Amino acid sequence: VPPGHPVDTFRREIWALRSVLLQMRQLYQRFDHLDDGEDASALVLEWRGLLNQLMDIEKHFQRKEHLFFSRLEQHGITGPSKVMWGKDDEIRALLRDLAQALQQPGLTAGEWKALVHTVGETVVKAVEEMMYKEEQILLPLCMSTLTEEDWAEIWQSSPLYGWCLVEPQEGYRPPEAVLREGLQLAGPDAIRLSTGVLTLEQLAAIFSTLPFDLTFVDADDRVVFFSEGRQRIFARSRAVLGRKVQHCHPPKSVEVVDRILQDFRSGRHDVAEFWINFRGRFVHIRYFAVHDRDGRYLGTLEVTQDVTQIRQLEGERRLLQYDDAPTEVQ
Questions:
Q1: At the top level of CATH, which class does the domain 6-160 belong to?
Q2: Strands 281-291 and 271-278, how do they pair?
Q3: 191-311: CATH number
Q4: pTM for this one?
Q5: What is the structure's pLDDT at 185?
Q6: Does residue 2 surpass a pLDDT of 70?
């Protein structure tokens, strides 16, 4: 595998994560050498730093779940996504628990040691087991199954999710012939709608300018379109296109996804709404059933919007006032 190939980068991330885990184990041994009444603050600070590095595993998981799993599913292989994604979520929960525990004030060295031998060791073991499964099972499976086109798609989409602890090396680049094209719609002519006419260029620009993210799932539950705004809330890559929407969510969410789709398809409901706190932002997520003029179900539209600033609005603004800085006109 050449340097910079997705497998090479993924493998180097595994090695980097193992190095962090080794440092954690060594730190745990130093905790054991403390008397229960000693000051453990310096070791706790070091532990927080190592955990911060380990939390970078989220980027590693995101690429695996949305790129590697997606391409395997195109070849009819769904086992890894069903099993590993659930385990990834368990690790995420453990990391959150440890991060919360490390913020506790006033603990004695004895109490910190107890934390080491419970949550601390559980986290290290869970991540070690996942790294083993990725290296011994997932990567060999991908290498024996995926095509050059699949690797080109993974390579091209990977920067959307970022890198874990290490950067890709220089070397691999897919042949230009297999790099996929961007958004393509049939025909160069203008698109005529009941309320007007748009060129393809205009339509694409409108989708990119909308202050919310769109994703459309067709009547067969496959993702067939998503908008590419300037600041998407949840990352999307072209690898998701054609993928069953159930496979784009963690296993614990699939039941809810299926219920929404069944209710929309049957006509029982037309709208489902959620709102969550996400990375300091208040995000409104809405799902709409899409039907043709005869009432036939065509699919489901997801609309995701950051409404943090909208929730803070008060009173009225009736006079023109720009909130963004002016752009210099040449």
A1: mainly alpha
A2: antiparallel
A3: 3.30.450.20
A4: 0.77
A5: 40
A6: yes
